[in-house]
Specification:
Oligomer: single chain
Distance between the termini: 33 Å
Number of strands: 5
């Protein structure tokens, strides 16, 4: 649905930390900018994304986004 909300999870294995971004944008937004914690600076992080309908407590299957280096 166009009103589905984006959920992004980033994992930094170097420090064993996850950062979760809930309701970052709707499906129709088509792009989003995330501001991550300074703790991740210079680290390789792994990402996953899914769309949710929080009011119905439903979520899509997550998609692996790959590894990125946080600058």
């Amino acid at each position: 649905k166009p009103t589905d909300e984006l959920l992004v999870v980033l994992h930094a294995p170097e420090v064993g930390t996850f950062e979760v971004f809930e309701s970052m944008a709707t499906r129709v937004a088509r792009e989003v900018t995330l501001t991550v914690t300074n703790e991740f600076e210079g680290m390789d992080v792994y990402g996953w994304a899914a769309f949710t309908q929080p009011h119905n407590k439903q979520a899509s299957t997550s998609t692996y986004l790959g590894m990125v280096t946080i600058l």
